[in-house]
Amino acid sequence: MEGAAQPVAVAAAGPTGRLIVGGVGLVVLIIVGLLIGAPAILLVGCVVAGFGMTYLSGIALNLEERIAFGAVLGAMAVSTATFVLSMVVRDVTLGTVIAGLAIAVGAGTGCAFARRDLLARDAADAAARWAAPVRTAGHPWPVAAVFLVCTVWTLHFLQQAYVYKPEGLWAGYVNIWGDWAAHLTFAGSFAYGHNFPPQYPIDPGNHLGYPFMVDFLAANLVPLGSSLTSALVLTSGLLGLAFPVVMYLAAARFAGGRAAAAIAVFVFLLSGGLGFYYLYGDIAHSG
User: How many CB atoms lie within 10 A of CB 261?
Assistant: First the structure.
């Protein structure tokens, strides 16, 4: 089971294992920064903040669970902290973004530092499990396989979500055209329209009753240099990449087996049916 403790592996890994995990993390940060630029500050900050906050729970999570669950928890924490500051100044500014991010990351870092002995054991345990032969019981290769398969499709999907052409802005999919238009409006009202307290942009004077915090999170990327369309894509990418891993790891705990967890992920993502059959036709038709 992915969440099971590995005391023998921890002892075997030692300081070298912690250095390996730290090195891998640093390489990932550098790559993300080079690919995305300044908006990566907020996206990485979400993961760091949430990762640290998982140490507030009494659940014996492993490192992979803390990273995956933390990505979602951190997005919530950063959104909340920056939203409170934006409510005060009635705007989304570079100052509110950096200050709110600092609050969330500071809280997460403080939680991790308070449990630094457990953090060190988690890092050593992860290094030992990943360094073991693939056929070793408890090796986390299934979570990597689920992540890689879902990442390929997620990146393909998001890369075509919004495309600027000479004719204007094109939506790559009908659900982007239909659903994201509202999200683009909500996010734009925060980033450019001083929509605080939040009201419906198309119905001023009425409180925004739609769950809007994910759109507010996207708006926070605009002061960091992101376009509004890219902001939606980037924040969707953060949560979209985390979701399959979150579901797999949670299902592994509930179902007690890795095969059942992997099946659960794909049954859910394929809408519980054989509709994925049409995917092959779409690929053959449009690539």
Answer: 23
pLDDT tens digits along 84-128: 999 999 999 999 999 999 999 999 999 999 999 999 999 989 988
- In contact, 232 and 113? CB cutoff 8 Å: no
How far is it, in rounded angstroms, from Cα 106 to Cα 161? Answer: 33
Whole-structure pTM value: 0.84
The rounded distance, in Å, linking the Cα atoms of 26 and 217 is: 24
What's the domain range around 22? 7-286
Q: Is 89 a member of any domain?
A: yes
Side chain identity, residue 192? Y
- For residue 168, the surrounding DSSP H or E stretch is strand 168-171
pLDDT digits (tens, 9 = 90+) for 184-232: 999 999 999 999 999 999 888 899 999 999 999 999 999 999 999 999 9
Domains identified in the chain, total number: 1
Pair of tokens at residue 278: 């049409």
